[in-house]
Amino acid sequence: MSAGDATGNGGFRLKRYVPAAEWLLHYRREDLPGDLIAGTITAILLIPQAMAYSLLAGLPPEIGLYASIVPPIIYALFGSSRALAVGPVAVASLMVAAALGNIAPDGGTLYIAGALVLSMLVGLMLLVTGMLRMGWVANFLSHPVMSGFTSAAALLIAASQLKHLFGLSVPRGLRIDQTLMQLFEQMGSANGVAMAIGFSSMALLLFIRGPLPRLLKSRGMPETLAGLIVKAGPLVLVVVMTAISAGFMLHERSGLNVVGAIPAGLPPLGMPDFANVPWVKLLPSAALIALVSFVESVAVGRALASRRRQKIDANAELLGLGFANIAGAFSGASPVCGGFSRSVVNFEAGANTQLAAIVTASLIGLSLVTFAPALTDLPQAVLAAIIVIAVLGLVDLKTPVEVWRYDKRDGVALVVTFLAVLAMGIEEGIAVGVILSLFLYLWRTSRPHMAIVGRVGDSEHFRNIRRHKVRTLPDLLAVRVDESLYFANANYLEERLLGEAADNPQVRHVLLICSAVNAIDASALETLEKLISELSMAGVRFHLAEVKGPVMDKLEAVGFPELLKQMGGHIFLSTHEAFDAVEKGRI
Length: 587
Description:
The structure is a single chain. The protein is mainly alpha-helical and 587 residues long. It has 2 domains: 33-396, no CATH class; 450-583, 2-Layer Sandwich (Transcription Regulator spoIIAA), CATH 3.30.750. Helix content is 64%, strand content 5%. It contains 26 helices and 8 strands. It has helices spanning 3-17, 21-24, 32-56, 61-66, 70-78, 90-103, 109-131, 143-166, 176-186, 192-209, 211-218, 223-247, 250-254, 279-306, 314-330, 340-348, 355-371, 380-392, 398-406, 408-424, 426-446, 490-503, 522-537, 549-557, 560-566, 575-583; strands at 86-87, 337-338, 450-455, 462-464, 476-481, 509-513, 541-545, 571-572. Helix 3 crosses helix 17 and helix 6 (90-103) packs across helix 7. The longest helix is centred in the middle third of the chain and has 28 residues, at 279-306. The radius of gyration is 30 Å and the shape is elongated.
C-alpha cells in the first residue's frame, strides 16, 4: 500500500468520526468571507435570543449565553451539517422548564444544577443512540404529531411570557388555562412601565420583521445591508431598552423586573452535580428533550443541506448533538439543539462551513467578557417580547388544514396532540400523540386496501375492476393486497379471500398478487398455510404472484413453496403468467 493510500484511508477514518475534517482539511480561502459574515450576523441575533430562551427555561440569562459558546464549537467538530446553528431553542427551553419544575419548583441552586445534569443526560442519550446507529428513532414523531406539538408549545411559551409583559408573578408549571386565570385575577396589580416597555418592544420587533425591510429597500438601500439591519434589530432593541431602564432607574423607581447582574467572563468549567440532583426523575424528560431536539435539528439540517445538494448523516447528528450537550453540561449550559430561525439566518448570511459557528461562539464569549455587566438593567419584558415574537411563526395554521384534507386519521393525531399538550403538558401530550399515531397506523394497516384485478385489454397490465374497464376470468379470483402481511392484518386477509371465494361459487383459483408486500411475518405465514388448506377443502387452489425476492427467500427457508405445490398451488413470476396459465388450462 502506498503512502498516498494510507493517507487517504486515514483521512476517511478521520472524517467518519470527526465530520469537520472534511472541511477543515480542505478549507477554501473563498469560503472565509461568508463564514466570517455569517458568524457575526448569527452572533448579533443569538445574544438577545439566548438570554430570552434562558429566561423561558427559568434560568439566569448567562446560562443561555454559556449554551452558545462551548456546545456550538463541539458540534462544529462532530456534526455533519455545515450550516446548522446550535444553541438554546424555544421549544426545548420550555421542556427544560417543565422538567426542572418537577424537582425544584421554587427555583434556586438546585434548579440551575438540574439544568446542567439535564444537559448531561440529554447528551448521553443522544450519544448512545448515535453509537448504536439508531437515527430511525426520530420516525416515531410523525409530522402531524410534531406540528400539533409545536403549535401547542408555541402557545404555552407565549402564555408563559405574559407575566413578564405585565410585570406580574405567576408560578411555573401551570396549565395554560391556569396561567391565564392567574393573570386575569392579578391584572389590577399589573406594572404599567413593564407593559409599556414589553408591548412597545413587541410592536418594534413586528415592525422590524415586517414593514422595515420593505421600507429600506424602497429607499434604495442594498438588500444585504437592509438584511443586516433587520437581523440586528433585536440586539439594538436590547441596548436601547437597557439604556432607558438604567437611565431612568426604572427598577428602583417603578419596580420594573430586570435580569440583574450577569457574571462577566467565560463559562466556568465543572462536573454536573449528580450527587444532589435527583437525576433519575429527570430521565423521562431528558429522553423526550433528546428526541425532540434530534428531530428538529435533523429536519432543519436536511432542509438547508438540500439547498446546496449536500447531505447530512442522522447518526452523525446524534453524535454531534450528544457531544455538544455533554460539553455544555461541563461548561454551565442548558440543553441545546439546532434552531430553525437561527440556522436559516446563518445559511442565508453565507455560512459555508461550521467555521461560522465557531466565529459566532467566539463573539458571544467576547461579549460576555466585555459587555456582561452593562446588561444588568435589561428589562425582562424585553426578553419576553423577543420570545413571543419569535414563537409566533411556530403556530402552524396551514398544516392542520392540509393534513385534514389529505388524511383524516393524521388530522386526528395532529388535533389530539395539540389539545393534549395544552391540557396535560409537554411530556404527556407528546406521549398521547405518539401512542395515538402508532394505534392509527396499526388500525390502518390491519385493514389493508385489497383490489380484485383484471386484464386491461390484451395487455399485460392489470388494474382494479372498480376503477378500470378490464377483462376477468370467471374461475379466477385475482386479488392484489397493498400492504405487508403481519399479525394485525392476517385474519382480515383470510376473511376477505374466503368471503370472496364463497360469494363466487364458480371460482376455482385464488391468486394473491404480492407486488406491494414487502414482508410476511410468522403470524401471516401461518394464516396463509391455513388459507391454503381451507380453500383446498372447498375445491379451490391458491396461488401467489409477483413475490419479491427477500420475501421469497424467507418462504423458501421454511418450505412454503413445497407445501403450496402439494396443494396444487403455484408461485408465478407475474400476474400475466398466472392469467395465461388459468385461461389456457395449464393448471
